[in-house]
Amino acid sequence: MRIQSIFKEDSVTVSLEIFPPKPEIPIENVTPAIRTLAKTNPSYISVTYGAGGGNTANALEVASMVQNELDTTVLAHLTCIGATKPRIHTILDTFKEKNIQNVLALRGDLPNADFDKDSMEFRYAYELIREIKAYGDFCVGGACYPEGHVEAPNKEKDIDNLRYKVEAGVDFLVSQLFFDNNMFYSFLYRLAAKGIDVPVVAGIMPVTSANSIKRMCALSGATLTPKFLAMMDKFGDKPKALSQAGIAYATEQIIDLISNGVRRIHIYTMNKPEIACPILENISHILG
Ligand code: FAD
Question: N or C end of the chain, less CB within 10 A?
Answer without folding.
Answer: C
